[in-house]
């Protein structure tokens, strides 16, 4: 590794440390620590939202998936922009900001809990975050550690510990202000690097038209038919085509990845809380355009380059991407960068990958810490103490848990695309458990507390059952195998095709159905479990 690379990394870490310290110095109250004092600049908010959304999960994990599944993954980019930015900001963002301010809510679970006057809702929502977000965080940690391992040639576990330690320090000290300041820097680095990555890919292949033409022709190359025979059986029809409709790969792409992540973004706690960091709807309007462009570039480039990596690697090594990466899906993008990015610019890409992981991971640590400290310990259990110190204590616990999961993930089957799957699992959980109650909180004045509660519990339960016992991902989690001796309950049965259906397609309808069924039952009995005056207060100014 050159002196230049070391110098660039040191400068980047120094600036990150300075921004974390700046956040620490500007944090005077618990509101500053939890939601940045509700006075964040719209550009910083947009970059923080985008950088939190886009991590090594999107670039390394899903970029690697695109190398295997093709450009059909660009449908996820469409949903990320249309749903994750425009619908999120317009339909959810403005009401979340105003209601959060009216109710003096500092976290996503607290917003739900105060809206429905329920410690149970706040505690249950926080428990979901505390227990299951470490799975998502472990995927992000693994992505960062994999890239450091590939780039520096050091062991996975040393990479993991160093990476977590750096992020943990500035999040623990600086709170939300430290997180958002560093997110803005990291977002800028990521944007520049990904634009350069797209240019390198297309220039290396002779332009946009030539690149896509070569990618289309690659599928028909008889020399690689043996390498992709397994994918063809799963429904693969080429890198510029969607998988065969109804095939296992089609179900995986559409129902699990595109819909699971594309819809799940609406109910991500670490993203929803960003809406509460600005002082007015005007800031949200100003942030929306820059956020949309950022997400379009970040995900679109990752998926395009992931697909095109097959052409470049086959041209230069005689192997398609997954084979050149020794069967490790999560190593495809790092391999592409190390092979095709000029060495003088390599340090910038190193920073961009670190930035992508650090920006998301810092927000996850902050969200999990507030869930454990403020929502569970302080609010649900009614314990008293210094909010910032309690939150930092909760943060320390979840950092350890997430690190242990990422450590153990190194022993999972490498070809399974663990990073993308861990990410998808958590997005599907939040969709099922949080989306119906979130919509109800913001838009349905007459929604009873008990209906919202039962819907959230039912969605979480349905997600857990389908993810750990029915879906094909259950074989990764090993719980079903531990109990029944089979990867999934439907393995080797006439119902085995159910394992292809994404959890969102099952758990979200269950959550919605239970919510409205309980609401109907309560309405028939003409019982109201919430005071009208409180509901009217919640919707003041909306």
Task: Give the topology, please.
Elements: H1 3-25, H2 30-35, H3 42-53, H4 56-69, H5 74-103, H6 108-115, H7 119-152, H8 156-204, H9 208-218, H10 229-233, H11 248-264, H12 269-272, H13 281-317, H14 321-324, H15 332-340, H16 343-380, H17 387-409, H18 418-443, H19 449-470, H20 474-477, H21 479-484, H22 504-524, H23 532-538
Notes on the protein architecture:
InterPro entries: Na/Glc_symporter_sf, Na/solute_symporter, Sodium:Solute_Symporter. Keywords: Cell membrane, Ion transport, Membrane, Sodium, Sodium transport, Symport, Transmembrane, Transmembrane helix, Transport. The chain is built from 23 helices and no strands. The chain has one domain (3-428): Sodium/glucose cotransporter. Helix 3 (42-53) packs across helix 8 (156-204), helix 5 runs parallel beside helix 11 (248-264) and helix 7 (119-152) runs parallel beside helix 19. The chain has helices at 3-25, 30-35, 42-53, 56-69, 74-103, 108-115, 119-152, 156-204, 208-218, 229-233, 248-264, 269-272, 281-317, 321-324, 332-340, 343-380, 387-409, 418-443, 449-470, 474-477, 479-484, 504-524, 532-538. By secondary structure, the chain is mostly helical. The model has no long low-confidence stretch (mean pLDDT 87). The protein is 76% helix and 0% strand. The longest helix has 49 residues, at 156-204.
